[in-house]
Amino acid sequence: MNQKQKALNSKQNAMIVDEIKAAGFIVYRIIQENIQYLLLQSSKNPHHWTPPKGHLEPNETELQAAYRETFEESSLKSDQLRVHDDPMSIRYQVNGKNKLVTYWLAEMSDPEAVIVTSCEHQDFRWASFDEAKKLMQFENLITLLNEAHQILAKRLNK
């Protein structure tokens, strides 16, 4: 390996080390055969809508963070969610740093469970697929929702 390749590998490794990691669930429920997605509205400007998610704590796995953050942000406990096996992820930049967010699909075991948001959020909404796409402002998140919805549509034969 020449010096140029070593420098490139070192830079790529540094980018991975500097990457911010977060995790969450794309929580959904089925009401009268319709899929609805849980979206939380941020208390901070620009008050964007996203599924529950947050940063990993030291020595925490992505899945552990997804459970913790979902509970902190929506009051949903692990026994209220049926989590799908296959994670999906998106990457983007925030404040000049790379961020990797890993999501799992999670079905509500009780579609009528009460949602209580944290101070980080000012509102929540159960949204249809089309409404969720309109509320979400980030293209990569919309793409992820499209992927999630296709998976659910196949499972539900829709």
UniProtKB/TrEMBL annotation:
One of its GO terms (biological process) is ATP biosynthetic process. Keywords: Hydrolase, Nucleotide-binding. This is Bis(5'-nucleosyl)-tetraphosphatase [asymmetrical]. Belongs to the Nudix hydrolase family. One of its GO terms (molecular function) is nucleotide binding. It comes from the Eukaryota. Pfam families: NUDIX. Gene3D superfamilies: Nucleoside Triphosphate Pyrophosphohydrolase.
